[in-house]
Write a structure and sequence with these properties.
Number of helices: 9
Low-confidence stretches: none
Mean pLDDT: 81
Helix content: over 70%
Distance between the termini: 44 Å
Order of helices and strands: HHHHHHHHH
Largest sheet: none
Radius of gyration: 23 Å
Shape: elongated
Structural class: mainly alpha
Strand content: under 5%
Number of strands: 0
Amino acid sequence: MFARRKAAFEFDQTQKARLGAYSLVTILCASVAVHVVNTAGVGTFDPRWAALGGGVGGIGALYAASSWFGGRGLLGTVRAIVGIIVTAIIASVVAGAVILPIYGAFYAPIVLSTALATQPFLLAGCLVVMGLVHSLMIPRAFQDELFAALPVADFEEPQAAQRETSELSSLTRANLYRRN
């Protein structure tokens, strides 16, 4: 009984990476929402409510824009930049609607863009975190290709292992026993 419950919470590396990406975006959006509400002077709001709105907005925004992240090469970088913009707009609309129901959804993207334009450290922090999110959303196969070019220590294969695999076809050896 406990083994089945334990198995429900065992994640592979891709799921762990996505969980980390969602956690980063949730923390980022919650902290940015609290910061923007406190510095914008838009009234007296409970910071816990702003953090809740920012966190929910961040989760929803990353879910909606997750297909933009995780590409490789120049096209993947361009898609990630578009994904960052889409995530910021969706997160600010959702957070603004939670914090101030009608007007917040309209004014939150404007207030966020103003805060990012006037506070370069906030913008730099957001870009660094979203860059981490992009790298976490890269599929595992692409990460293996990225790290395949790194030098690996050479080792001598034992004679017994060479004899065991010598009877296999070259295609089978290439697919099952990858050696550099």
